[in-house]
Amino acid sequence: MIESNAPDSSTASVELHRSNDVDEDGLSKHRSLRSLQELLITEPTLRMHCALLAPFGSLWPWHPRHPSGTRAVSLEAWAKTRAAEGLSWRDFVECFVRPFVKTTRIALERHGVALFGGDGEPLMFEMAPDGRATGRVVVGRKQTFGGRESLDALRTALANLGEAFRRTAGGRAPSFDVERAVLRAAMRELRFLEPRAAAALSADPVLRGLVHTIAPEQDALLRGVLQRVEDLARRRAADRTLRKPAVVFDLDLCALIPRARTLLAARQVALPQPGAPQGISELLEPERLDPLPVHHEAGWFDFLERHRLPSKYPALDWAGLRARFEMAYYRPWENLRLDEVLPGIATFVHDIVQAGGEVVFSTGRRDRVRAQTEYVLARAGILHATLLTMPDDRTRPVAELKVEQVRALTDLEVVAFFDDLVANRAAMAAAFPSAMVIAARIPGFAGEPADAAAPQIATFETAPRVRTATRGVVPAPLDAQSISKLALAELQAPVMAADHAVHLSLEQSRAIVDRLVARAELDAERTAAAARAALQVGPGPASDVERTVRLLHHVLTRKQFCKGPRGHYPIELAMRDMAPHVERHVPVHVVILGFPIKHCESALKAFGPLPDFAELGALVRLRELELSVRRLYAPGLRLTVLTDGQHYRPRTQSLVDAYLDRLHAYLGWIGGERIAFRDIDELAEATFGPGTRAHRQEVVGQEEHRLRAALEGLSVEENPLRTLRAAAERNVDSEHLTFQELFLSLVHSVPIPPPPPDTPQIAWSKSLYEDLFHLEGPEAVCEARRRLLTTAWEHSIRYMASVRANALLRYYGEPFDVRVRMGVVPRAGRLGISLLGGSTLLPWHGTGCVDARGYVSTEFAISLLDQGFVPVHSPLLQDQPWMMVPITATRVPAPGRPAELLPAFIESIRLRRK
Known about the structure:
It is a single chain. By secondary structure, the protein is α/β, with parallel strands linked by helices. Among the domains are: 15-210, no CATH class; 216-255 and 339-457, HAD superfamily/HAD-like (Rossmann fold); 259-336, no CATH class; 695-809, no CATH class. Helix content is 41%, strand content 13%. Strands 12-11-8-13-14-15 form a 6-stranded parallel sheet, with helices on both faces. Strand 6 (124-127) and strand 7 form a beta hairpin. Helix 5 crosses helix 6 (175-189) and helix 18 crosses helix 19 (544-556). The two termini are 23 Å apart. Residues 1-34 have low confidence and may be disordered.
């Protein structure tokens, strides 16, 4: 177990309570679970936002930013202090609302307990000596947990937060407006609750309005659709005879919510009439109804039965009323502009496109309302999908026409189909038997009876975080290769993370590196021994050369080194590449392309431009590889890393040089004398003679000119995703890379417009990227998005021109000499290199981190901050964090002392072996 800086039993007496069962509200009953102290040791996000009030009034864990100590102050007392005067709403949410709600959520969601309940103890927060809030809520000594009193306490606390802020504003803000704002902020923190926690909070009528959850089955289902799109797109990249994957959506009561039209239509048909001389009171106030009526027959009668309306109005002609309701529902046509999109649909559509798929909307609406339909989709940022509408004179069944229209898209392979009607789903299932057919059932609306043949969704939302057995709840997906797959709008970057940073000395930094290298050396011994043992099994090799090559091939394709299928580099290729070196008993030359520069432009991926612990770990892995080989073949390997800082994209030379200088310094620290960095263009010049680089630049310019001519008339600022689709039809791809996938990658690593005054860089970047392709809204954000997209377009043209020039010249595709080719991207004919074991994210695309198990990895900066990681600084990188670690891997050994890494955590730091 990781060592803690916990106080002894005399100073940590707060206990959480939970039984093996839960009460009727879904909250745990009163039996000892474990101390809050233990929770703060193991839960990084909880530790970031919560402190424990120990006996004698001290707070634990001690705060590293305030050496003279902090104190717990009640919310009421704080509102009367001078520090509270003029506090901005943003700071109030960050330091008071968010810590309280987040702490409540984590305890309830992950441990089934409710904090801050009972005994009348006031809500308290941690204050620095100057009276400013640190961003941690304080759990007192007299709390009781579980049951109705906890829900009452939570509701009361939210009301008190609103009142406290109103008082700090001098009473100028109306109480109702402030309370509503607090509830909105709380709702923001309670999004995507796990179902059990949502059920517990829903037991309270006030808190029920804050609850937001999605079914795990929906999350798995939608992720399954995206995975099928990705798989088919990947196969199609290798075989262009395959059709492009497509997902087909119905519109009304599937992708679109006609709530406003439904309410208007209900009121129109509720007036006095035969069978209801006083009118239909339920329809006069339809906003009170759950569910609302729908126009199709099965759903209409479901609505009637669930509200028992036929028994209340037995003389009413309900079939005739449905006809009038349907007319009012669709007329006037302009009312269709009032529709809203179903939550998550815009993001899901963009995810499909970025996964390599096409989006088709197939609707029963007629051609005459196409403009109104496109308006609603465009307002949501969906501008690039194919929209199939019905002829105005349609007489054939909708289901039959839908199949016919989709079949006419002969270049598409239907992967999945979403619709709210059984008949449509059945027709599509029969026509496209390999497609996933999924039912949409929008909450709050009546519908057809459940269809056992089709899985069901309520929205198109997927969870932004997933639970794993070893890492708790983390942003999804784990080890994402693209930041576009993160739900940026839902992730948070707490400002107090910097207050908990650890600052290492040079000696401490060196000790961590030495320990990492020593462990890698032991692993190299194990790998070599395993290779010898493996070669003894089966028939012996024909010669000593073959035996040696087989040993080296065994090492190079081990799980800690090899990325991708081992079949990409069979023994026959290894004999071709390595036998000439082995015969001459000289080092085997291995060439790797990589280490261009850190992608820190937005601060969402990395915090700064210099290589951090991720690159250092990658170099240690390369040294481990070289040592493993040398234990079996004395000459070992000669590793050449071909850097490409200026090869594909224009970059500032000083940044490229600074990055390389730090890499060379790391080599000195790890003993990497057999690893050399060479600029790819300098090596080409040295190999093929003077003028090679200039000739390549000339060819790049020619290819760039051809690309611009091919793309003429396209504007990425107007309709980005549709423009990318149009670009794909203009012969601008290379053998291994499409222009669309290149653009969607580069758009997250290009310079972005500077943020407005007083806006943190990471907050500004989030606002741009969380809905990057939506160009309707606040002008400052949309203009910045347009500039960002244009920059990415230009970089993509230059990058693709470089790729095409390399293919034409073959200077960079053919070997410079006899050597083993390695690549960070797996590809047949060469070895794929896994620089950090299980981490699929390349070191320069993210931030170096060490997780709670001690594994060195790379993740995006925003993801790490959201998980409760804090910076660890070293003199090696000055102001840029050297690595990120969970806050639970740190301690403050005594009041007045700075934060430090736990000794046991330092001992655990190592590279993953798979």
